[in-house]
Amino acid sequence: MHIFKTNDKVIVKYAGLLYNSPDWNWDSFINRETLHSEVLKDLQNISANPLLAHNLEQLCTPIAGQEIWASGVTYLRSMDARMEESKDAGGGDFYARVYSAERPEIFFKSSASRAVGPGGAFVSGKIRNGTFLSPSWCCLFAARVLLRAI
Mean per-residue pLDDT for 28-39? Predict the structure, then answer.
């Protein structure tokens, strides 16, 4: 099952077929307690619509009212850079403590309105305050479901 968000629709691709319901609102849809089973139940009452394929060319970020949070960094070089930034900004050894913590710390990254969706343009590299931007793999935790996006 694949779930897509466009400007005005939630589209589900299941078994190679595309579905949409006017009752689906992104925030309430994605935060269902048992998302997979509830969507399968919905699909029993909805006809597949091959015309939805053109909507898949206009995908949006898979978030609406949610915030974007992140945990940790992947590369040692990035860890060193974050620790240096923290020290320069008066944060002391904040990041050093994060990286050696027994459990991962999470950080607020952005509001949904500032996120760039699939195929969107963004500036990669160093920007004015010394921060580096890069595309990221992300996980969306909704209710008790883990959804993955790239």
Answer: 89
User: How do 10-14 and 17-20 pair as beta strands?
Assistant: antiparallel
Point out the least confidently predicted range of 60-69, 114-123, 125-134.
125-134
Residues 25 and 118: their CA atoms lie apart, in Å, by 20
- Report which secondary-structure segment, H or E, holds 94: helix 94-99
Gap between the Cα atoms of 117 and 131, Å rounded: 20
Q: What is the pLDDT of residue 14?
A: 96
Does 150 have pLDDT greater than 50?
no
Task: For CA atoms 25, 7, 49, 144, give the dihedral sign.
Answer: negative
CB 3 within 8 A of CB 60: no
| Dihedral sign (CA 52, 54, 56, 61) | negative
Handedness of CA 53, 54, 59, 65 (dihedral sign): negative
Cβ atoms of 32 and 143 closer than 8 Å: yes
- Write out pLDDT tens, residues 75-93: 566 677 777 777 766 666 6
Give the three-state DSSP class for 96. Answer: helix
